[in-house]
Amino acid sequence: MNAEMEIRFYNTLTRQFEPFRPLTAELVTMYSSGPTAYDFASVSTFRSFLFADLLRRFLESSGFDVHQIMNISDVCPLREHSALAGKNADKNRFATWKSQDNRTSGEVENPSKAADYFTRTFLEDGRTLGLRVANEFPNNVPKATLFIAEMQQMIAKFLEQGLAYVGSDGVVYFGVEAFPRFGQLSGNTLEALRVGSGSRIEIDNQSCKRHPADFILWKPDPKHIIKWTSPWGDGYPGRFIECPTIARCVFRTDVLDIRTGGEDLIFPDHECEIAQACAATGNDVFSRFWMHARSLRVQGEKISKPTATLFTIRNILSGKVTGTPVHPAVLRMELIKSHYRAHGNFTSKGLADTAHIVRRLTEQGKRLREACGAVPKQIDPAEHAVVRAFLQALANDLNVSEAMAVVHAWMWSPCPDAAEAYGVLLTLDQVLGVWELAASDCEEQVSECDVTASLCTMIDEARRAHQFSAADAHRQRLIQLGYEVRSSSDGTSAKKKLA
Questions:
Q1: Cβ neighbours of residue 454 under 8 Å, at least 6 residues apart?
Q2: Residue 369 belongs to a domain
Q3: Structure pTM?
Q4: Is residue 187 part of a domain?
C-alpha cells in the first residue's frame, strides 16, 4: 500500500470518519450481507452488493489482500414455507421458480429446491455484473444451511450463560436485556423500541417474550417440511444467528475488519448480530467498521416489495424495464457511480447517460489496445499521477464521484504513450470493473453484419445523391434495430446501443 495514502471510512457504529487499518498486517477480513434465496435479487439489493465489490477492489488495488465472505441465506425460504399456502407473495415466488425452471407442482413447493434455484440465479447475475465474490462459490459464498450444528452450539451456550431462554411457546429467544449495549449501532434504546420490531413477528407472540425486542434463536415446528433435530424440538434457526455463526466458522476469528450491507439491515439484523457475536466471544465489537449502502430509488421513489419483483437484474438487462436492452457494463457503472451513502436514483435517462460514459471508455480502450499491440505498460499506482489521484479520491470514504472526475479528465487528455495509457486504463478498471465487461462484446462494428452494413451503405449513397429523406429513413431503421448511427466524411457506421 502507498504509505502516504491514508484511508478513511465512515463507520456506522461510531457515526464518524475513522482511519482504516486492518487488524492483521495487510489482510482485510470483510463480511458482506448476501441474498435471501427465495426470489431474484432486486437492483437495489445489487447496489449494496456492488458497493461491497467496489470497496474490495479498491482495497486490493491499494495493496491489501482481502478475504471477503458473502453468505447465502437459504434458511429463509425454509422459515417462510409454513406460510406459503396463505400468502400470495410467497406462492408467486415459487410459481416464478416453476415457470423459469420447468418444475412440477410438487417440486415447486419444496423450499430447499427453490433456494438452490435462486442461489444459482444470484451467482449468475453476480458474475454478469462482475461481482468478484460470485466467482468464489462455495468457499467464500457459503450457504447458511451448512452451519446448523454450529448455530445450535451457539444457542446452547447462550442458554447456559443466561443470555437466552425458552418462551412459553417453546421458541428459544435471545434476551436483549442481558446485553446492555443493545442499540449501539442503530441508536435505538430498549425503552424506545416498539412492540414487535425486534423480531418482526406478530404481536400475539409478545406475551411469550420477556422484552418486546427479544428475538428468535430457534423455532420448533415439527410440521415443517424441512427441519433439523435440536434439544428444543425439530425446527429451524432464527435469521439473525446465521451471519455471526458463519463469520466465526469461516474466518476463524472473533473480530472482523469490515462488515457491509444495505441500510435496511442496520436494525434489527446487524444490531442483533452484534449482540450475539459479542455475547459469544466476550469482545466489545463484532466488526471494527460497519459500512452501509443507502437504498436505490426509481425515478426518485423507493422501490416497494411489489415493484422489486420487476426491477431484477435480468429484467433490466433484457429491456423489460426501460424498453431497451442494457449492457451489463452500463448497469454496473450505473450502480456504482454515486456515493454509497447517498440514495441512488435509477432512471432511463441515467442509464443512457451512463451508456455514453461506458461507450467513451470502451472506444478509448480499443484505440489504445490496438495502438500498443495489446501490450500494456506496467503501472505503479503509487507513482503514476492519474492512478494515485484516483485511489486517493476513493480513500476518502469511497468518493467515487471525485474518482470518476479523475477518469473523465484522463480520458479527454492526450495519450502520447499508448502502452502507458492502456496500462492506466487496465489499472483503473481493476477497481471499476467496467472495461472488463464491455471490452469483450461492445466493440463490434455494425459493418460486420450484412444487413446493417447494407443500411449504412444506403445511407451514404442517399446522402451523396442529396436524397436526405431516404437517408433519414434508413437511419431510422437502424435506430429501431437498436443501433447508434454516426455519419461523417468517412461514411456511416453503427454500433449496438448499450442502453
A1: none
A2: yes
A3: 0.87
A4: no
